[in-house]
Q: What sequence folds into this?
């Protein structure tokens, strides 16, 4: 029995980490799909209560609801043609960032998402959209 305990503990740990990874992966897909579909509502589900936005140099701190309206306006002015993630990075276990390319009306924009894990959910605290 003593020999089985480490094995059982290892299986439980792997199983738990796998579930967290699957949940994070599905969250990422919803976030990425919201850019592809131009859905500010879906994207805002992952906003932190306060979020810093920078859209082509216009910066500000917004509540979750205000940020959704700003992003909705952006998607209306610049409807999505394509979105793809080009880089994913981590700072420790809590902070994740993504860099992507958003295409609209034949122009490209660099998307930088910064978020942190809070109670096993990814919360975006900073979003930059810069035309290049």
A:
């Amino acid at each position: 029995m003593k020999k089985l305990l480490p094995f059982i503990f290892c299986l439980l740990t792997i199983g738990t980490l796998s579930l967290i990874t699957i949940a994070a992966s599905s969250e990422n897909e919803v976030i990425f799909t919201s850019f592809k579909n131009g859905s500010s509502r879906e994207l805002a589900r992952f906003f932190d209560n306060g979020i810093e936005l920078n859209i082509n140099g216009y910066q500000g701190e917004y509540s979750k609801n205000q940020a959704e309206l700003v992003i909705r306006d952006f998607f209306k002015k610049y409807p999505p043609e394509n979105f793809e993630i080009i880089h994913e990075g981590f700072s420790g276990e809590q902070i994740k960032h993504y860099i992507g390319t958003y295409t609209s009306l034949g122009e490209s924009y660099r998307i930088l998402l910064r978020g942190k894990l809070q109670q096993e959910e990814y919360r975006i605290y900073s979003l930059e959209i810069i035309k290049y």
Remarks:
- The radius of gyration is 18 Å.
- The longest helix spans residues 4-37.
- Residues 89 and 97 are 5 Å apart (CA to CA).
- The chain has a mean pLDDT of 85.
